[in-house]
Design a protein that fits this description.
alpha/beta; Rossmann fold; 5 domains; six-stranded parallel beta sheet; 24% strand; binds zinc ion; helicase
Length: 736
């Protein structure tokens, strides 16, 4: 219906895949101020019997609904859009690309406080300066005199800084005497000037590093992969390239895959630059997160270091995005809005015409494929910096070894050797807890999770059996629940068990365990770094947490206990991931002046993929993986999307996906470039009481996929779906 009043198309946080139409209240029309309504502004809207916060996405002149039935919004919250138009369009593009319900996706990318309707915070900083008429005669306190003499030597200091150095009472006392004055300072758009902004001189680059840096352009969009072996000094290139961007008065975003890597990267940047380096991750209060978000938006933060969700943080004048450890699967959100922060960062950089830098010692297959297609620039660093040599690879064939607590005789000798040489050993096992199962020796019974297709892991320290998929927890039974015999034994290895065993063998040597359970304590990683870099002989037992980015100088032995589980895991990306994990964990060794060695324990010493890794390198290992994916028509040789569904009843979810398949077929029959597989069970078929199935769509080109999913999700919105069934689209999945 044509209409004089503009219609607001509003995104609302609901699972519905549509915008909702509202009208502008009469008072705005009468006062001729309808132009206040701009896409990107929040509005308070009546929705059913609730009031919700929504976002204006579009303003239309007509509506498909009866105009008289459209409700007016209750309030306009923002005077101007929360983010720039180009960024808001990027948010909408992201929701569409991943075929996620637009309202859920759009609101998800904003900090929680904005979703609740709170205003943007003031970002000025409370500062103190010395009163011009000050005289130190008015005080005798040493602390107060120290503070005065500090303020006398500089223009001002922040309240936060002074409080940390001198305490609140000192500040208050001086303020009361009128010797110091408070003011609010705004850092907005303050010019960055070099070399003043350098705290620390750049390190001298070696030839390879210098070549890489010279090939990076600050001017326009380009995606470059720095494919540099572990310990090759990629971070120094990040720092020096960032310096060029900062000199140009532009901001730099650095994404890391995990929270426990944020602090380390932040320290690198704040040690180098005397600029505002802020972090952004989920382990912050809502207020902190919104404050940093706002400072980035205003240009008060020069550098943002954060995890996945930072890809949606606004900027005043963004000049560079760096994705460290680009291969890491943590960049893909696995629940709800299933986006890949790496892929979106590249899209955002392209929209903004700025460079994006991917760094990894073990690039993902899809990134390598994009280099081969010349979409990305492939830059190599093949040597480690300084004197350190690449680690030596070896295999321990378990077929000829006696094994105790998961550690072969040979491996144990190696650990002893390392310790007696005063060096450090890293034991890698990607399983936390004591043992992955509790097993009855007499009847073969195993304690399963009540809600999942998985066994309960024994956690000895907590004296509990815990499901690692749904957190279901049970007490440890004293007798077998099937045959009532006293014959329950833990089978298999976890970090806790290895820790117990090694502490027994090496009672005088420190043994550190690094996993999700042990690292919950505040500053765990910092403390670990300090202790381990104290150079004493020690043993570190770690899960994949230990494979990422950590720089320990004195590890010379790396031992991978369980290579086989992942080698034969059927998920399509698992072998690639194994190669990445092993190469990364090997890279923790020999980073100082001593040679590092890695030993892989396996029953499959002649497996061609392991041979590639051990005798050749990760690059040639990846070529084998690549050939296999090409033959099996899997990514990156096909575009893959999944319709995932789950339900408390397996027949309901299977029937639902069969229906989805028939709809898909009616939209687009299979042909040489489009094919369908499923419904198939997910790798973990039952999880948290729900049966999980998926339907695979593979296409040769991206636009086929996008248009098919657009039509499919639209039609699925019109069919009746059993209430127990939930469904999601997963575009470019990293697991099945
Ligand atoms: Zn039994
Ligand atoms: Zn479970």
């Amino acid at each position: 219906m044509k209409n004089q009043k503009p219609i607001l198309n509003v995104a609302v946080p609901t699972p519905q895949r549509q915008l909702f139409d509202y009208v502008i209240p009469d008072e705005f029309i009468k006062s001729d101020s309808t132009e206040l309504f701009i896409p990107g502004c929040r509005v308070l809207i009546p929705f059913g019997n609730r009031n919700l916060i929504g976002l204006i996405v579009k303003i239309s002149q007509s509506t498909d609904f009866d105009l008289k039935k459209l409700k007016p919004i209750k309030a306009l919250i923002d005077k101007e859009p929360l983010v720039s138009k180009i960024l808001f369009d990027f948010f909408i593009w992201s929701a569409n690309y991943y075929h996620h319900p637009i309202g859920e996706a759009l609101l998800k990318v904003f900090p929680g406080n904005l979703r609740k309707g709170l205003p943007l915070p003031k970002t000025t900083t409370r500062c103190w300066k010395i009163d011009k008429s000050y005289s130190s005669d008015n005080t005798k306190s040493v602390k107060q005199l120290d503070l005065l003499s500090l303020l006398n030597s500089v223009d001002h200091k922040t309240d936060e800084f002074l409080k940390a150095c001198f305490g609140r009472s000192t500040i208050s006392a001086l303020a009361k005497k009128g010797l110091i004055t408070e003011f609010q300072k705004s850092y907005t758009k303050e010019k960055v000037s070099f070399p003043k902004a350098l705290k620390q001189n750049p390190k001298l680059l070696n030839d390879e590093q210098a070549t890489v840096l010279s090939k990076l352009s600050i001017e326009k969009f380009s995606c470059s992969l720095i494919d540099g072996v572990t310990g090759s000094g990629k971070t120094e290139i990040y720092l020096q390239f960032a310096e060029l961007i900062l000199k140009n008065q532009r901001q730099v975003f650095i994404l890391v895959p995990e929270i426990n890597l944020v602090q380390q990267m932040e320290a690198q940047f704040s040690n180098r630059f005397d600029l505002e380096v802020l972090t952004f991750h989920s382990n912050m209060t809502d207020n902190q997160r919104l404050l940093n978000w706002t400072k980035a938006k205003n240009g008060e933060a020069h550098i943002i270091v954060g995890t996945r969700s930072s890809v949606f943080v606004p900027a005043f004048n963004l000049g560079l995005i760096i994705i460290d450890e680009e291969h890491d699967q943590s960049y893909k959100q696995q629940e709800g809005f299933r986006y890949s922060a790496r892929d979106l960062a590249i899209q955002r950089a392209s929209n903004d015409s700025i460079p994006v830098l991917l760094g990894s010692a073990t690039p993902s297959l899809e990134t390598i494929q994009n280099c081969i297609k010349n979409k990305y620039q492939h830059l190599y660093i093949k040597k480690r910096i300084g004197l350190s040599q690449p680690p030596k690879w070896n295999i321990i064939d378990l077929k000829n070894q006696s094994i105790s607590n998961g550690i072969s005789e040979f491996a144990e000798t190696k650990i002893k050797e390392t310790i007696s040489n005063g060096k450090q050993a890293l034991i890698f096992i990607n399983r936390r807890g004591y043992a992955p199962a509790l097993f009855c020796n007499s009847c073969g019974w195993v304690m399963d999770c009540a809600n999942c297709d998985s066994k309960l892991t024994l956690h000895k320290a907590k004296q509990k059996l815990i499901c690692h998929h749904c957190e279901f927890t049970a007490n440890v039974p004293l007798k077998c629940l099937a045959c009532d015999k006293d014959s329950l034994v833990p089978v298999g290895m976890g970090t806790e068990r290895i820790e117990e065993y090694l502490k027994n063998i090496f009672p005088t040597i420190p043994v550190f365990r690094v996993d999700k359970d042990s690292s919950k304590k505040k500053d765990f990683m910092e403390n670990l770094h300090r202790k381990v870099n104290g150079a004493e002989p020690c043993i570190i037992i770690g899960t994949q947490m230990m494979t990422k980015g950590h720089d320990f100088k004195n590890i010379t032995l790396v031992l991978a206990l369980d290579t086989d589980t992942q080698l034969f895991h059927p998920d399509f990306k698992n072998q690639e991931r194994l190669g990445q994990l092993l190469t990364q964990v090997a890279g923790r060794g020999g980073r100082g002046q001593f040679l590092g060695e890695i030993y892989l324990q396996t029953y499959n010493s002649d497996h061609p993929l392991l041979e590639k890794l051990v005798k050749d390198n990760y690059g040639s290992f990846l070529q084998d993986i690549s050939s296999e994916r090409e033959v099996t028509l899997m990514p990156p040789f096909r575009h893959l999307a999944l319709i995932r569904a789950d339900s408390t009843h397996s027949d309901k979810v299977i029937n639902f996906l069969k229906h989805v398949r028939s709809i898909t077929n009616s939209i687009q029959p299979q042909n040489r470039s489009i094919n369908y597989i499923g419904p198939l069970p997910s790798m973990l078929e039952k999880r948290a009481g729900r049966y999980r199935y998926l339907f695979q769509i593979r296409t040769k080109n991206r636009s086929q996929m996008h248009s098919l999913l657009t039509k499919l999700t639209h039609q699925m919105g019109t069919i009746k779906i059993p209430s127990s069934v939930r469904w999601f689209v997963d575009v470019d999945p990293v697991e099945l």
